[in-house]
Amino acid sequence: MVLNSPRGTSDFYGKELEYRNFIIEKSKRLFERFSYQQIVTPAFEHTEVFSRSIGEATDIVQKEMYSFRDKKQRSLTLRPEGTAGVVRAVVENKMYADLPLKLFYEGNMFRYERPQKGRMREFFQIGAEAIGSDDPLMDTEMIWLINDLFSELGFKDLVLLINSMGCEECRKDYMEEFKAYLVQRLEKLCPECKKRYDQNPLRIFDCKNQACRVEAEASPKISEHLCKQCYQHFEKITQNLNLLAISFEVDHSLVRGFDYYTRTVFEVISRQLESAQNALGGGGRYDKLVGQFGGPDIPAIGFAIGTDRTSLLMQQLGIKPLRPKRARSVYLVSMDQKFSSFLVKLLKFFRKEFKCDTNFNKKNLSTEIKWAEKNDYDFVAIIGEEEFKNLMVTIKDIRKFKQHTFSWENEKDKILALLRGN
Ligand SMILES: [Zn+2]
Ligand SMILES: [Zn+2]
Questions:
Q1: What is the predicted pLDDT for the residue at 324?
Q2: Per-residue model confidence (pLDDT) at position 401
Q3: What's the gap in Å between 166 CA and the centre of ligand 1?
Q4: How far, CA to CA in Å, does 202 sit from each of 61, 150, 178, 266?
Q5: Is 52 exposed, middle or buried (0-12, 13-18, 19+ CB in 10 A)?
Q6: Near ion ligand 2, which residues have CB within 5 Å?
Q7: Is 302 helix (H, G, I), strand (E, B) or coil?
Q8: C-beta atoms surrounding 245 within 10 Å
Q9: Which CATH number is associated with domain 14-167+227-317?
Q10: How far is the CA of 285 from the centre of ligand 1 (A)?
Q11: Strand pairing category for 300-306 and 329-334
């Protein structure tokens, strides 16, 4: 019987995993420099954690959640994004002793979507949340982080889009105008958007239908209706970004697919990818969410990036994950099963300091050396008949095409010196 992985999931190993791990490593180091601490939350939560925060009218909640009943008939959902769980954890554990609270997370997320390249049902995200400050400098810091993350990964031509969605105050007047605009054009909208018009008209901006996009493009924008405070808040952020020499474009149509966003929203896109799936990451301010979860009424902001699409684009653009200086490596080749007592001693010796593996399945010497070369080993250490008899080991420097035979008893220092490159 052959079993396949479920549709929309895939196995990660080899090169793919190397890219993902590189992105994780880079982001962790960056978060550390900006003083963010890691948080780990469950991969599933009570369904309400997502339905109430992301919004009942969003595509995610209506169509894309992996929800199930457990044996006690509780409704649970595999997390479709990271923010809701983090906010739930912050409120539940009353983590507001020292604000702002700066957190980052990484993990797999799940959405029931039509699988495509760069959009899987199980996908991996890295994100950051800063809870407890509405200072525009905090918005600046978030945008700064996402910008630096991509540039440190090696990207050069990504586009940073920013916008303000205003606060509840500015949204009141705007929504009336927006609905008045839409009501005359309802006939042109897709059936989905007709429903959205009643439930949450802003979601029309998420529609991928061409006719709906045209109407959304032409509609009045919330960023043109900002109250004085929201306007100044946004102004300050753009000033800060200019000071930091971070280039950006203001995109008045950018609203992002979650209901909880207020004020600043931002997205990093690649114009080299087709437009429906060109976002590599994004985020925004969610000043009401902590309060909605029963916590104090404190502002917050966050972002997340998808590692799968990021890694795909890196590969398309030929950006290599630059490995941190790795340990030197030795491939230990034993030419006969009967040398195993000596082999074990050498494995133990090498593995204390170097990456070391051995040829479990014996082949001939030249095949083993070729294999070590192909797999980027620095050295091959050989135990043959002669070496075993005299307790010697022959070490071959793969790149320098040089080899030397050492006495195991008397020349351990020389072996170490050679391997360390002293
Ligand atoms: Zn406002
Ligand atoms: Zn539509």
A1: 65
A2: 84
A3: 4
A4: 15, 29, 9, 16
A5: middle
A6: 190, 193, 207, 209, 212
A7: strand
A8: 6
A9: 3.30.930.10
A10: 13
A11: unpaired
Q: pTM value?
A: 0.85
**330 strand-pairing partners:** 356, 379
DSSP code per residue over 211-272: HHHHHHHHS--GGGG--HHHHHHHHHHHHHHHHTT---EE-TT---S-TT-EEEEEEEEETT
The helix/strand/coil state of 391 is: coil
**Distance from residue 90's CA to the centre of ligand 1 (Å):** 26
Q: Where are the domains of the chain?
A: 14-167+227-317, 329-420
- Give the count of alpha carbons within 13 A of 369, CB side only: 16
Q: Which residues have a Cβ under 8 Å from the Cβ of 370 and sit 6 or more positions away?
A: none
The residue behind tokens 């004020």 is 263
Under-50 pLDDT residues of the chain: none
CB 193 within 8 A of CB 212: yes
Q: Does domain 329-420 have CATH number 3.90.1300.10?
A: no
Interval 215-237: pLDDT, tens: 888 999 888 899 999 999 999 99
Distance in angstroms (rounded) separating the CA atoms of residues 55 and 80: 12
Q: What is the pLDDT of residue 171?
A: 85
Task: Encode pLDDT of 91-101 as tens digits.
Answer: 999 999 889 99
Name the 3-class secondary structure at 143.
Answer: helix
What is the three-class DSSP state of 298? Answer: coil
Ligand 1 centroid distance, CA of 381 (Å): 69
Residue with tokens 């590599």: 280
Strand partners, 300: 131
